[in-house]
Amino acid sequence: MNRKIVIPAAIGAIAALTVGLWVFAGARRGGARALRIYGNIDIRQVQLAFNDTGRIRRLDVQEGAAVHKGELIAEMDSARFADAVQRAAGRVGQQKQILAKLLAGTRPEAIAAAAARVAGARADWRNAVLNEHRMAALYRGHYVSREIMDNAQRAADAAAATLEAARQNWILAVKGPRKEDIAEARAALEADRAALALARRELADTHLYATASGVVEDRILEAGDMATPATPVFTIALTNPVWARAYVPETDLSRVAPGMRADIENADLPGRRFSGWIGYISPTAEFTPKTVETTELRSQLVYSVRVYACNPTGALRLGMPVTVVIPRQGRSAALPAHPCGS
After folding, report:
1. What is the domain partition of the chain in residue ranges?
2. d(CA 144, CA 133)
3. I need a surface site. Which of 105, 175, 248, 337 has the fewest CB within 10 A?
């Protein structure tokens, strides 16, 4: 056999085999790059209720209406809550004046009046003392009785006590209010302010706002009904983000982790892929649910996975069957707290 022909042929065969193996390996790598699991769309719900008890005055949205976070959707009769705010505001104003009066101290006119009462009491005391001395001299000369002398002494003692009382009142007027009284007035003012804040909060609670964007799924109460914190008024379906409940086989559990990027597809929406992320993986295994069970999978253990996805147009609907595609390569970058907005 001609070596010039055999050697090139062998080299060509080796090259072809190498390329074939590389293509085959690449095909296997490409086939294993993404994990495809199946499930259905679940939409989260929130039930909105007033934070107080009262009669509903009006409801602003109907079932099926789209609402946005912070939107006013219902109102309760607020008359008695407004009256409570006015009463609490009046108490705050009154207590402010009491505190201001204590902080201002005693008026100069009041101090002058107290000083004048001291002067008057001192004059009365001096006169009573002189009268006592006169009565004592007359008693020694046997011109008056013992009773008259005793009355003069009692009058002098009473005048002395009145003078001391007037003097103490003047001292209190000069010193002004006690610091303990001022502290008590401050505490009472803070309590009244807290009561006013509570009354205003209760008045604000007569308005019911949407806590998140979504669609009104159920209008439970109507205008005129009695609302309580335990009785929901609306059920809101939170449509963005939505989440798909899917199931990962036990053999593929190591390929998924919270925070990984995942895409959602639906056969009725060809060519559309919704970007999402894995938010939850069940810590316990379960048998394949009947909704996705086949004859071959009846005894297979799976783990429930929640895959969140932004749904701004509402294309993903409750109960829709979907395919979740999870890339093989590691986790995506950290996602913000609300990647789909409020």
Report:
1. 46-76+205-234, 85-201
2. 13
3. 337
Secondary structure string (H, E, C) spanning the chain: CCHHHHHHHHHHHHHHHHHHHHHHHHHHHHHHCEEEEEEEEEEEEEEECCCCCEEEEEECCCCCCEECCCCEEEEECCHHHHHHHHHHHHHHHHHHHHHHHHHHCCCHHHHHHHHHHHHHHHHHHHHHHHHHHHHHHHHHCCCCCHHHHHHHHHHHHHHHHHHHHHHHHHHHHHHCCCHHHHHHHHHHHHHHHHHHHHHHHHHHCCEEECCCCEEEEEECCCCCCEECCCCCCEEEEEEEEEEEEEEEEHHHHHHCCCCCEEEEECCCCCCCCEEEEEEEECCCCEECCHHHCCHHHCCCEEEEEEEEECCCCCCCCCCCEEEEEEECCCCCCCCCCCCCCC
- CATH-assigned architecture of domain 46-76+205-234: Beta Barrel (2.40)
pTM given for the model: 0.64
What six digits make up the tokens of 11? 């080299």
- Asked whether residue 6 carries a pLDDT value surpassing 50, the answer given is no
**C-alpha closest to that of 264 among 39, 45, 31, 30:** 39
**Chain segment 69-101, per-residue pLDDT in tens:** 999 999 999 999 999 999 999 999 999 999 998
Which residue is it, tokens 């009473």? 158
Inter-helix orientation angle 79-104/179-204, to 10°: 160
